[in-house]
Design brief:
Elements (H helix, E strand, L loop, with lengths): L1 E4 L1 H6 E11 L3 H8 L3 E2 L4 E5 L2 E5 L2 E2 L17 E4 L2 H11 L4 E11 L2 E11 L2 H22 L5
Antiparallel strand pairs: 1-8, 2-7, 2-9, 3-6, 4-5, 5-7, 8-9
Length: 150
């Protein structure tokens, strides 16, 4: 069950591989995510000392958050991935043009997981072609329905 998707990632990047990673979260963050108060549009993944970190993911704290903690809505969160997968990602990211982007947050067996994608950046003309293709699909659907004046 998907919580939030990063639609901008598919517009800005060609996603070649996908990986499912766990997240190290605090209690108030899990409650806020369950309430749908999370954004990954501006988030990105970095590799530091053979570990993956999610930066820029904004989790808005609930009003009922505990008073003895100070919630930091954009703190850096560690991603949990198998060591073999991390080494594979490090090798790919060091190649020219590859980057790691968060694609979505979802629940898996009661845990919050982050799907990250190994992606290559799109050029401006690629984005224009994707927009043209999307508009053509919409137009084709209208023609098939017989709604020609829309």
């Amino acid at each position: 069950m998907s919580i939030v998707d990063n639609k901008k990632a598919f517009f800005d990047y060609f996603v070649e591989e996908r990986f499912e990673a766990g997240l190290v979260l605090e209690g108030w963050e899990v409650k806020a995510i369950r309430a749908g108060r999370v954004h990954v549009k501006e988030a990105y993944v970095v590799i530091r000392k053979a570990e993956l970190f999610l930066i820029g993911c904004h989790i808005t704290p609930l009003l009922s958050a505990s008073t003895h903690i100070v919630p930091d809505s954009t703190r850096t969160r560690k991603l949990l991935l198998n060591a073999i997968e991390i080494r594979k990602l490090i090798g790919k990211v060091e190649q020219k043009g590859y980057t790691l982007v968060p694609l979505n947050l979802h629940f898996s067996k009661g845990n919050v997981k982050c799907e990250i994608g190994l992606a290559k950046g799109k050029k401006q003309h690629d984005k224009r072609a994707a927009t043209k293709e999307r508009e053509w699909e919409v137009q084709k659907g209208r023609i098939a329905r017989g709604d020609l004046n829309a």
